[in-house]
Amino acid sequence: MPCLNLSTNVSLEGVDTSSILSEATSIVAKLVGKPESYVMVVLKGSVPMSFGGTEQPAAYGELVSIGGLNPDVNKKLSAAIASILETKLSVPKSRYFLKFYDTKASLFGFQSF
């Protein structure tokens, strides 16, 4: 049940968001060790955002998962998502943060919980 929330100040107008969503889904599933059918990715663009005192392209993300996260996985996820943001949205890797939450299943509702 990994959920990746990505926000950026870059406009998504004219951007192939489907490719960003599918690449991020695949990477999260692979690295966290969960089926793609369990992965959710939320992408928000044109979010008012300042990083380092400027409004140049930047992004912030949060990844919530029930297990599958550890320092090695987090490092790989951060690098992989940074590459997508840089390639698809021209967000420099130095202007992006990703926060990780490893949580318990009891804190989430899914299907018939």
Automatic annotation (TrEMBL):
| Lineage: superkingdom | Eukaryota
Q: Where are the transmembrane segments?
A: none
What InterPro entries does its record include?
Macrophage_inhib_fac, Tautomerase/MIF_sf
Q: Which GO cellular component terms, listed alphabetically, does the Swiss-Prot or TrEMBL entry include?
A: extracellular space
**GO molecular function (one):** phenylpyruvate tautomerase activity
For this chain, the family text in UniProt reads: Belongs to the MIF family.
Q: What is this protein called?
A: Macrophage migration inhibitory factor
Which species is listed as the source?
A: Rhamnella rubrinervis
